[in-house]
């Protein structure tokens, strides 16, 4: 164990760390390794945090999905990949995705797609299509949604010409 902190001091630090915002187990364990070098002490603290409900992966996954969708406008593919990167279970990922209603997801996608299409200043139509598609793919939206929206935007452009 580290010479700097006692286990109760570390528990107190981690309580604040977890109370400030929801954390996944991976983040908490990384933080603990920076404070403690004893695996048994780390296990004890993690068990304590779970028991006191400071650490809850289902709650983390749900708030992560809601936040990334509503604030950063991420699609489901990106959210799933980021949660998997944080070693979140498939069950918790599925629960988290239920936090985003189909209606909200579609509205966000439409708003983001329309705004991006209007802001693209590209005279070459093929390059514009590629930039549009790449942007929405990076955001984590599904191929089918992107290409349907692209067809819709192209049809609108054709009708207005």
Describe the global form.
elongated
- Beginning-to-end CA distance, first to last residue: 72 Å
SSE string? HHHHHHHHH
Helical stretch count? 9
Percent range for helical residues?
A: over 70%
Mean pLDDT: 92
Rg over C-alpha atoms, rounded to the nearest angstrom: 22 Å
Strand proportion: under 5%
Characteristic key phrases:
mainly alpha, 9 helices, 76% helix, 0% strand
Structure description:
The chain is 76% helix and 0% strand. The chain has helices at residues 7-20, 25-35, 39-51, 57-72, 76-85, 90-97, 102-119, 125-139, 143-160.
Kindly summarize this structure in a few lines.
The protein is mostly helical and 161 residues long. Helices cover 76% and strands 0% of the residues.
Give the secondary structure arrangement, pairings included.
Blueprint: H1 7-20, H2 25-35, H3 39-51, H4 57-72, H5 76-85, H6 90-97, H7 102-119, H8 125-139, H9 143-160
Helix pairs in contact: 1-2, 1-3, 4-5, 4-6, 7-8, 8-9
């Amino acid at each position: 164990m580290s010479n700097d902190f006692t286990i109760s001091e570390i528990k107190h630090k981690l309580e604040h760390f977890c109370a400030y915002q929801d954390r996944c187990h991976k983040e908490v364990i990384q933080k603990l390794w920076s404070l403690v070098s004893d695996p048994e002490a780390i296990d004890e603290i993690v068990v304590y945090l779970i028991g006191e409900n400071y650490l809850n992966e289902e709650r983390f996954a749900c708030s992560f999905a809601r936040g990334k969708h509503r604030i950063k406008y991420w699609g489901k593919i990106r959210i799933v990949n980021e949660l998997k990167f944080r070693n979140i279970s498939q069950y918790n990922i599925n629960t988290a995705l239920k936090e985003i209603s189909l209606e909200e997801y579609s509205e966000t996608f439409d708003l983001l797609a329309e705004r991006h299409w209007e802001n693209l200043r590209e005279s070459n139509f093929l390059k514009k299509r590629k930039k549009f598609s790449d942007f929405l793919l990076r955001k984590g939206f599904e191929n089918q949604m992107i290409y349907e929206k692209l067809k819709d935007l192209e049809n609108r452009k054709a009708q207005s010409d």
